[in-house]
Amino acid sequence: MPRAAHVPAATLEPVWVRSLLIGVALAFLALFLFVPLMAVFAEALKKGWDAYIAAILEEDALSAIKLTLITAAIAVPLNLIFGVAASWCIAKFDFRGKSFLLTLIDLPFSVSPVISGLIYVLLFGAQGWFGGWLIEHNIKILFAVPGIVLATIFVTFPFVARELIPLMQSQGSEEEEAALVLGASGWKTFWHVTLPNIKWGLLYGVILCNARAMGEFGAVSVVSGHIRGQTNTIPLQVEILYNEYQFSAAFAVASLLALLALVTLALKSFIEWRLRDTHEQFQEQGS
């Protein structure tokens, strides 16, 4: 007599319980995601497409968009390098201080972004630890692009590492060890063995890191100085326009971040699907 297939406990719940839970989840999504996004686009287009395009192409807005893209273009690759190196060390090796390194990686998740910005003020401000030396050598960190980049790197550096660490730990190191035994160099092993196995998790972490880098407000607000046309990113430009009662322009610029959120959500769903397929393939190979 064949064994009965195992039925997950969740499927044994009454239909009304499942319907209630699904309804609650959809209600929360509608209330906290779809309705706010629709409101942003509705307000952005309230005065028509001409006003919307004019707000996006306004000189200060273009400067904010350019600075945001430059910041993300610097911060994301650096966090990519750090994330791969840190996850490789933690997943593949045992060493003293491993738990401490994990704690440091999680630090930006537990520290307010405003506090992160104030740390850089303490270090590089006029009265900070290195302020006198920077002034003497005419080097600007705060209220300039370097300070914005540094603050963005700090608040975003856990994203890539935190996606790769559990993925690399679950895959183990057998394939890398086999490649090394067969004579492959460390670089070839990483490029032809490790990277193909983590590519979707890596892309997932990069997408989340980029979305956070482009949308960061708190830390960047502290170190930027809010200089129009010079140190304002997109979130800071939205705040300035809103405080000046230019609501349509503020929502028009904010819609760029909303579009980024929608694209990130779509890519996130696609990559999660690919990661699930990859995980199932590893389970089949293991069995």
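Above is the first protein from milestone M3; the second protein from the same milestone is given next.
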Amino acid sequence: MPQPLFELRSITKQYYSSGGKSFFPRREKSATVTALQDINLHIFAGEIFVIVGLSGSGKSTLLRTLNHLIPASSGDVIFQGRTLASLSDKALIALRREHMGMVFQSFALFDERTVLDNVAFGLEVAGVPREARESRAQAMLEKVGLGNVADHYPHQLSGGMQQRVGLARALVVNPSVLLMDEAFSALDPIIRREMQSLLLMLQAESQRTIVFVTHDMEEALRLGSRIAIMEKGKLVQVGKPEMLINAPATPYVRRFFSGVDVSRWQMAENYADIWTTR
């Protein structure tokens, strides 16, 4: 079995309520909100790993522990054999810059920069000379179908085009890992499906590792090599789509597939019997 790219060991994340020690340090600690509870997980190189859950389930928090934007309260996040909490701030910044791109639901583009300059921003931060970074940014815009709008500004683009710019900006630095937090959920259904197809096409070319957060099971099934389902900060079940469909661990998991056409993944054999023997 290959070594995991990410290994999460007993990850827990807790937040204090507004009356907690941050505001009243001399009082007893208030009740905490547990966003993540004892998460153990492996993510492997080259897979699209999708995290699914309802609002408040902890899926976005879990995503942000992978690059240490949200440090865990306890447990270890290990990337390529390195425990992230043990890294210096400088080493952590370098790791994010060199290995991890991120795409958010909000497009997070710079309004005052052209599309080309938006895409080239990460290369600029990395110290790549102007001519080289603009050449790479233009090539990436061509790849996502926006080569003809390089001199436009974000406000001149549709939402779908803006998200393509965001994706191009994340990919132009050639990260080995792409973290995507509800990246397509603000788009209308047709554009959303186009973005899913684009992501799958780019993944077929590069085989980078993608961790994708969504609340939409149809999107998860279309994109995911493996899917993790979360409920109230806990991992309920992790597996390939056909496993989750044919052997849901709980009624909560089963409900995610209601109204979804799962015929492509259903198996004639009794998968549940196979699962219970493992």
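Note on the second protein: The mean pLDDT is 88.
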